[in-house]
Amino acid sequence: MAETQIEVMVNPHLSEDQEFFQSTTKKYLAAHAPISRVRELAQDPLGYDLAAWRQGAELGWFSMLVPEADGGGSVSGNGVVDLTIIAEELGRVLFPGPVVATNVVAAAIARFGTSEQAGRWLPGIVAGETVASWAVAEPDGQWDETGVAMIAQLDAEGIHLSGTKTAVEYGDSVDLLLVTARSSDGVVHLLVPRDAPGVTVVPLESMDLARRFCEVQFTDVVVPPSSLVGNPVDGETELDSLLALATALQCAETLGAMEQTFDFTLEYSKDRRAFGRPIGSFQVIKHHFADMALWLESAAAATAAAAEAVQIGHASLEAVSVAKAYIGDRAVEVVRECLQIHGGIGFTWEHDIHLFLRRVESNRAIFGDPEFHLDRVAEVVGL
Question: Where does the chain hold its CATH 2.40.110.10 domain(s)?
Fold first, then answer.
């Protein structure tokens, strides 16, 4: 089998600055966040490496969607596209920690928040000192406005929150929650400190050993009106915007996990011998790799289109849902194909491939599964 390797990236037309940024991120992760670290952190109370998180902040992981006036700034001026470079590399090493969720909260504050909110929260997020997560999904499993059931009620004391959110990344350890709820005026987004009175966090058992998810219960939690991010009149549009951003970044992360699994399986097929020859020389294995290479290239193209659409705000719902519907299924198929090529060794606890399968399987469900996004596409095109 020829000594070749498939190189796929979210955007094949990177500038020199973006290529340098990608290279720097890759080198940092290889040195400080190898896949072996995931296993070490699986039993860690926090679940991610706080030192690595803050060093990542120095590399710009949380600044891309934040204005320069608040300490942020991107590499190319296209913050969403630049952030997908980070997400793709993080996916290759299954980096633990709510990177996507924290960036979603930063984007919400930067785009829809007040100057007071930006001044209070964004510098800490950019510096890696404040970790945030998005509490949007509820037990019914819906991720858009149709699933928002948590009640936000305003009175003389402030805004009262009652309800339950699920699949909140690192809800037991973050500093700040962006909570999506429903008020009499429409969908609202509120900034709630995780340790606010009335907030109860229940850790959930996660398929993904490299991530923590929680159920967060709000029992008459009272926050001041200044916690409101954006305008209730635009709440549903803001929710669509944040969901599109989160999903596009997750697609890039999933793509990275697909690529890494493909790469180490390709190398394995060159080293593993059967009947006196590398298994990668067998025609049926070659066909599997050809199919997977096609799926990877298609996934990269779909992710690039989604990121560009979110960046410019044009038809992002449709582009993102197409990408998630495709990648959600194909990622699982790629990793499962790679698992079969590894044979018995791939089914052992010691091999890393199950960690990648756990990631792509959980990503398939988070921010809406393929069926959810196909329904959204159907609605957009009038079906």
Answer: 132-230
